[in-house]
């Protein structure tokens, strides 16, 4: 007979070990899946590694994906810490990119030192405002933020598409519906062959760490996440905290939009968010809402995405396999939380003599 | 004729984590008797009864019902053996009617047909003196009605072994008497009734036999007529204890807090506070009595700035508090601690450690962007020493502490802020006698320091002994303010039930 | 004016078709939520159902197996969520999101070979509109509601069955208790975990049917991400409907209409100089409005099940 019981003491190290085991088990379960498809799992994983890190160029590609993932995860983390289920990072990325592009198209000919900071700011504001709306609705009427943030994703996509086919269409593209390329002053330069946005990503990881663990603001966010009643009781202004945190959360995603439009695509279109907003939900959760863990997890997921593309060419395994693998990891890690909190007690069917079994 | 043995539990053991909740407990109940299960909070009474009702499974030991060895895997198994348990916190579905609640989990035709069920419910209700309207929704019911539904539910299930967990905790003395009459009636009709309690006078009044538990073990089973409250207490606590609560005489100071004609409404626009007026002086303990949900919570929260006030005034040293933010009110030196049923609720963040919980109130006073945890940790360590809080350390999550220690953390923090007005609701909820007395002593200490204390309590005996004055609430209104050394429990009970005794308001 | 009326009638017919996948998914989520579980994996379960239904139809040629396969696959997908949230007490929000990601990935993965393929003619014939005698001759109503394909009728039947099940049967009563107060249900001898599992399965199965309706009947060919966010709208519709299956049908058709409004009334809109891309925002924008409106008005009876989203663990202390 098996019975559940509350786990008494769980050290951080033990909890981490459980999570890592879960990831390994996810790979194991996926191996079964790959095996059924008639491939050698080890060879496939090996190819994924090669695809992600096999050459300096591939490493650069992987890191280029890791930058938006890391930053978006940091943004989502701030909201999730408050148990505000912001799944609208896709839309926030797009609206940040939209605002940054507005700067780029209108002031692109000015000096880079003027344009880029302005675009950066615009990106933050665009994403931040897009996240402010659901936060405000939640504070005002307690609407379900999950659905609103998601609906706003679709609206952002349609908005960018509208611009692409309508007002912002490049007249020089000879009927092809695309928006103009940014002027060179509006393009984030490269450093070591990677867009310089990686500096921003690293900076935000460190900032987020200090903010969440050592600042008053981070503390208030954590208290609100645990219990709104307690936060109110302690004299915190819950509304202000939630709204501010969501502007920060969406704003960071907005910066991702700016970096992707400017540093990677050099233009605006509806697919620059490339699903980062969703993948980052996984990476955020896997990091256990700890900013410093976000970085390695994001690199791992970037590697899986890039590796997934590579195995498509080598094994004709569809690219979507990477997504399946990622969601498997998420399933296993979510499931593993149980073993952090509870332990299973195995019991013999027939109860032992209590006089002996007592101790 | 020898009465049949309905329940026999032998050598029952149950462990939660590292805590032995039950250790080789023996317990038996006969047909037609009312059997009291007596013990302090945490002695293992509820655990034992939860095993009898199939909610927990014993680690070892045997249970016999009607002479048959049984193993309960689910509450269903227990119900089928004729056992019905009425939990301290009623387990009713609020949005369903009495009838629907009674039908929950019952076998019967796939489609529900209501008419004959309503008739059955009414019949059983009349037989035992439990009038219940089968079509009434639970959320429209008073506490007494809810309890009646719970009892009807187990009777409808055909239970002949009835377990009641602290059934009188939320009742007025008058309602309690009515309940006891029902229980005697049930015993007379051949049921076995088990009543879990920690109130001695109830044991003496209602039970035929009593089993005393202490720290998870059986201390003994006695015939009630052969014992007395003093002997039972000594058995329950394990040593001779002085049960008296002291009320140090303190020269009362000026009025610190004055509430005038306070009214408030809940989300459904129901009036929850009606023209509440009282004065709270420095150096006094003003008790608040009332059945659960009479407006205690709303009153506390209104003063703390957490509940919207519709009309009326709350004056602190003559200055209005209405409209001030909770933070401003805290800064003025008004501290509120409310211990909810789950004990953690509002005042503490369960998953955080003691230091971060102390920061809840403290972080406003720190300057700059960053938190300073070190000075707080030192303060916590001192409070752990002073209040003898049992914890592995200041960085241990508070939810892993025992109930008494959690409450000490909360009250310790509130006292640490050196408040001028201390509001404390259900401060001793779920504590054993020793821990309760520690809390009473802390409150008296504050009173002697000149703090004005509003003490919301459940136990009328405690209120009468500890408080200088007692204000009674009924359905959101003040029905009387009486002196603690003059009033009787009967009077309090009538006031709680909303009766106007025409008594003078004690100043 | 006659031209407008004709377009409106044609629009109404398609509105019901557009609303049917939403209806199944909404009913599925509603059933799941009645058990106290918020499953945000609707989009994923619909996609799993869509791909399974398409594959089953494609390989067997049987319309019943196509729908049966979708039903089963949707239910099994939901069981992943069920295991995580019922047995392992995991966070329901994140588990649901994970299921959506899994469903999106696996449908895209398995659907690679179906891209651009059509459903066979036999299956399409099976699901072609059938006129219901008498009812179909009522003006407008008959044309719109009673000359539809069998799955639309199954939608009506499901609403009626679900309404009866929830409010007239013992199991429905017990189920509502599980969602409202699992502690009370447990104390009454109801097997809480079993109720949760069964209804999470059935809920997912209905979502699967909704997905398959798209891939097998309405479209009927395979497209990657064929559900296009309908799963999320379904979740909002449950709130809109106040957890009442009869109101769900209204919501589903309303939103079915919104998603095709641009297509049918495009001429009118372009006359007013409104771009198709902006009209496409409508269902999403209206969802936000509706959700906000239903949050503003609150009542005891029409609210969410009280224990929605809260894990139940009997030995908790």
UniProtKB/TrEMBL annotation, chain A:
Transmembrane spans: 62-80, 87-107, 113-135, 147-167, 187-211, 241-261, 267-286, 293-315, 321-340
UniProt entry tagged with the keyword Kinase: no
Keyword Zinc (UniProt): no
Protein name (Swiss-Prot/TrEMBL): ABC transporter permease
CDD domains for the chain: TM_PBP1_transp_TpRbsC_like (cd06580)
Species this chain originates from: Anaerotalea alkaliphila
Signal peptide (from-to): none
Localization terms from the record: Cell membrane
Automatic annotation (TrEMBL), chain B:
Keywords recorded for this protein, A-Z: ATP-binding, Cell membrane, Membrane, Nucleotide-binding, Repeat, Translocase, Transport
Pfam families for this protein: ABC_tran
PROSITE patterns assigned: ABC_TRANSPORTER_1 (PS00211), ABC_TRANSPORTER_2 (PS50893)
InterPro entries on file: AAA+_ATPase (IPR003593), ABC_carbohydrate_import_ATPase (IPR050107), ABC_transporter-like_ATP-bd (IPR003439), ABC_transporter-like_CS (IPR017871), P-loop_NTPase (IPR027417)
Membrane topology: Peripheral membrane protein
GO cellular component: plasma membrane
GO MF annotations, alphabetized: ATP binding; ATP hydrolysis activity
Domain of life: Bacteria
Subcellular localization: Cell membrane
UniProt xrefs under SUPFAM superfamilies: P-loop containing nucleoside triphosphate hydrolases
ABC transporter domain segment(s): 7-240, 257-500
Protein name per the record: ABC transporter ATP-binding protein
UniProtKB/TrEMBL annotation, chain C:
Subcellular locations according to the entry: Cell membrane
One annotated GO molecular function: transmembrane transporter activity
Signal peptide interval: none
Keyword Membrane set for record: yes
A Pfam family matched in the record: BPD_transp_2
Membrane topology value: Multi-pass membrane protein
Residues that span the membrane, as ranges: 7-28, 40-57, 64-84, 96-116, 123-145, 151-167, 197-219, 225-243, 250-269
Keywords, sorted A to Z: Cell membrane, Membrane, Transmembrane, Transmembrane helix
Main location: membrane
CDD domains: TM_PBP1_transp_TpRbsC_like
Annotated Gene Ontology cellular component terms: plasma membrane
Protein name: ABC transporter permease
